[in-house]
Structures are given as structure tokens and as C-alpha cells.
Amino acid sequence: MNTTTAANTAHVTVATIRDWARRGIIAATKVAGRWVIDTTSLARRIAIGAMKRPARTVIYSVATMTAIGGNRWQRNGMDRVYINDWAAFAGIETSRYNTGNISSASYQGEGVSNSQAYKLLGCIDKVWFDTADGKIHGRFGYDESRVASRQEVWEAVVAGIRTAIAAL
Q1: What tens digit of pLDDT does each residue of 43-53 get?
Q2: Whole-structure pTM over 0.85, yes or no?
């Protein structure tokens, strides 16, 4: 199975699956530059993980948001934690040339064109946690990709944040 399917099966991020594959925690091979995960090995890893720890509740707070990389901002009675690297939580990975242009990109483990990567990055403008209501908020950008809709990217961001907090 591919990394996206494995991540959904194990209820972890695609980056975690790649890390497990690199470190040999699960049996995986690279075929044409992409990881192919052994289903039996992944099932064994999921069983081991289920035995180790009980299900954790995810609590959104200033402490948890800053622990996963957020930056706290307070002004005029507002108290927010901005998540500047929201693309990593959504599974958008880019490498860039020295000029700043994208040289290669992937979305949740699957390669995408550079123009679609720009559109994925442009579909969400800002992501923040507001202490007033205890919720994660976001502002959509103007771009929309053919790879994923704005709503799909937003759901991936929130799921990535939840996974990162649960892993603390």
C-alpha cells in the first residue's frame, strides 16, 4: 500500500509513515521514488501501538499550540496562537531553488506539479487558535488546486494539528 493509505489505516500522518519506513519500524521498499508499505508489518505496528498507550484526548490550548510550533500573539484584548507552518500539517512538502521557486512538491505523499503546489499553498492564507473560543480558525486564500479543494486542505490541516497534539 502507499503512504497515504497506510497513514489513514494507522491514524497517523504521512510523515510518520515515511519516518517509520526510513527507520525500519515497518517493512517498506522504495519503488520509483515512492514508499510501498508491507500491510502485515503495518498491522503489527498498529497492534503494538494500541497496546502501549490508551487513546488520548486532544486538548487545544496555548501550551499545546506553541508546543507544536505555533507563535503566540496578544494585542487589543485578543490572544491567538498562529500556526505559520500549516502546510506541513496538511502534508504539503516542497523543496525550493535558491531563487525561492519550487523545485519539487508533494501533497500527502503523492507528487504534484509545481503550479499545483503553489495553488495548494495559496488556498489557505492563515491558520490560528483563538483562546476566546478555544477553536482553530483559518482564512481561505484565493487559489484552488485541482489536486484538492480548499475544504480538503483545511480538513488535512486540522487533522495534522490534532495528530501532532496527540503525539505530545
Answers
A1: 888 887 766 65
A2: no
